[in-house]
Amino acid sequence: MSSQLLTGLPVAKNLRADTARNIKALSGTGVVPKLAVVLATDNESTAWYVRSIVRQAAESAVHCDVVDLGPQASGWQLQEALQALAEDRAVHGIILQTPLPAGVDAAALAALIPPHKDIDGANPESLGRLAAGLPAYAATTAQAAIEVLEHYQVPLAGEHVTVIGRSMVVGKPLAQLLLARDATVTTCHSRTKALASHTKASSVVVVAAGKAGLLTGAELHEGSVVVDVGTNVDEAGRLIGDVHTESVLPVARALSPVPGGVGTVTTSLLMLRTSQAALDTLVASGQPV
Amino acid sequence: MSSQLLTGLPVAKNLRADTARNIKALSGTGVVPKLAVVLATDNESTAWYVRSIVRQAAESAVHCDVVDLGPQASGWQLQEALQALAEDRAVHGIILQTPLPAGVDAAALAALIPPHKDIDGANPESLGRLAAGLPAYAATTAQAAIEVLEHYQVPLAGEHVTVIGRSMVVGKPLAQLLLARDATVTTCHSRTKALASHTKASSVVVVAAGKAGLLTGAELHEGSVVVDVGTNVDEAGRLIGDVHTESVLPVARALSPVPGGVGTVTTSLLMLRTSQAALDTLVASGQPV
What we know:
The structure is a homodimer of 289-residue chains. With 289 residues, chain A is an alpha/beta fold. Chain A folds into 2 domains: 32-114, Rossmann fold, CATH 3.40.50; 140-263, Rossmann fold (3-Layer(aba) Sandwich). Chain A contains 10 helices and 11 strands. In chain A, the strands form 3 sheets. In chain A, strands 1-11-8-7-5-6 form a 6-stranded parallel beta sheet. Chain A has a 3-stranded parallel beta sheet with strand order 3-2-4, with helices on both faces. In chain A, strands 9-10 form a two-stranded antiparallel ribbon. In chain A, helix 2 (44-60) crosses helix 10 (263-285), helix 6 (140-151) crosses helix 7 and helix 6 (140-151) crosses helix 10. Chain A is globular and about 55 Å long. The model of chain A has no long low-confidence stretch (mean pLDDT 96). The interface between A and B is large, with 38 and 38 residues.
């Protein structure tokens, strides 16, 4: 059996086309979609990610401000910056980039982002609204995993899906998105005993544990679909996922790889959401679009 | 094998003792814990439940106001009532009782209850905060199930727990509470195929599907622990759970029954939370307790 690769690029292209449609709908209205990225770290991989957001924004005709408070920023400075952006009517989307300085409460800060501007889905309220079926942005990476699965028409309703990882950025929101699609969902994590007993019983496995090589072919049911959401760096400095590719490829029916999978989709999703949030404010203001 | 019955009364008694301690700590401060129950139905079982809240409040020295808007209440009237209670500094806890009149958006209304007064855990924001590890009240019934499991020292960390039901009042918050206790959690529901494959692999099964007789002994692993959170009414008008008791008792190591289990704990938990919320406002005001 050879695996199909569920690559992110075709998914991202569709999202970019949707964004272009939104931008076109906004032309002549005077509204320019604007995204603000709040940053307080000198972490190199974060800097890399923020550059890719800025690049994608430029390509999408979305205005992007990077508010870099530096790695010494206090919780108070972050709070002030987020509150100002929350009130700024010209800003449609706010991203609070992690990691944050030590001792700063990320969840409490994310709670300052109004749900309608929370295009990265970082505010815990967004997760609650998502679970309740209210309008809300799911955490970007979780939504990107769903976009990949749906683009490649992987069945979810009635299927058993195992999610490895219980973070607020992937595992927890992804479980809600899968439940909303009628999947039976098992959430595994570092304290799970006998991981294979869950993954072997699943038709879809999404791994977001941040542990290179965690998921091998021995843990899988023949013909299952695997989505890798891990981001690790190997000794050579290359980005690798949580999947042990060599052993998984002969067993899985399909694999969304790292790099080239879910990660490719996230920045395009952020632009689509920012353009949509801008359109929503226009609709709310009663201006014809 | 004969099952241990995990009854709610000893759990409720402990919670009431904690409430009494809070009430004692409040004496002489001028603060009287106050709970408001907003009601808009003539449903008989709701009326029965609200009477039990009122009775428990009287026994606990918690002030309780029932704001009955009648079964014809509009969403607008409900919104006004909730906003007034949200602003009323004398009110420490707010319960929005379901069912609500047809066409009214329960989740949107519950979102009007400030998290610090949301002692029933109905606001979707409370679920999000719970998932993020921020201070929050979990939905009462979900927390009551945890109180029962912890009182009887049922191991949860590293265990596989299956939750049957994905509602905002039990299944979804319960999954978060279990994950926070390091359980591996599978959420099943009406669209789940092969329910037994999940429940048979679990050491703890919590059933909150609202379907009488749904869980039989044939679906269980010998020696597992079962918590029944179902509330159904049989032909004779008696309250029965989701567990098929006759077949489950010979297989399960322990069963929390209906009636007499989790339901017995909920009103006591509401009083404990109201008294705690009153204490919290006092602490926040800087007054010595």
